[in-house]
Design brief:
The protein is mainly α. The chain has six helices and two strands; from the N terminus they run βααααααβ. The chain is 82% helix and 3% strand. Helix 2 runs antiparallel to helix 5, helix 3 packs antiparallel against helix 4 and helix 4 packs across helix 5.
Length: 137
């Protein structure tokens, strides 16, 4: 069992864990769908821009509510927020950078490895969120 600083950390671990498991499973069940999503982003700059705004806003909101680095779980949750915010800024300012990176990862073997890693990390976050306790030990 993990002890972290706040209940918010545990709640966000549950939310991010579920999100990561769902995203990882979708890489297994919808590889062709991800290729189409990438094509949509490349073909529709307005959609890409709006996605960047959403990622930035969500990341900024996480950082404003949870910029806590006192333990590993809290630090990871805060890092998640910073990555989302920076990802949003890159999508807004230079979307080709991330679109090209995503395109290079569209190989089936890489997608499977990435999917497994994301599912495992999501499961660890979910377990930490449900079994952890809040409060400085």
């Amino acid at each position: 069992m993990i002890t972290t600083s706040t209940v918010l950390t545990l709640s966000l671990a549950k939310a991010f864990g579920a999100y990561m498991i769902a995203g990882g499973l979708s890489l297994f069940t919808g590889q062709d769908r991800w290729a189409r999503v990438l094509d949509e982003f490349r073909d529709r700059p307005a959609l890409t821009y709006i996605a960047g705004i959403v990622a930035y806003a969500l990341g900024a909101a996480i950082i404003m509510a949870h910029n806590i680095w006192v333990d590993p779980l809290a630090g990871f949750i805060s890092l998640f927020g910073w990555v989302a915010m920076l990802d949003g800024l890159i999508i807004i300012a230079a979307p080709a950078l991330l679109l090209n990176l995503a395109q290079s990862m569209m190989k089936p073997a890489l997608m499977k490895i990435f999917a497994i890693a994301v599912i495992i990390l999501g499961a660890l976050l979910l377990v930490a969120g449900f079994t952890g306790t809040a409060g400085i030990a």
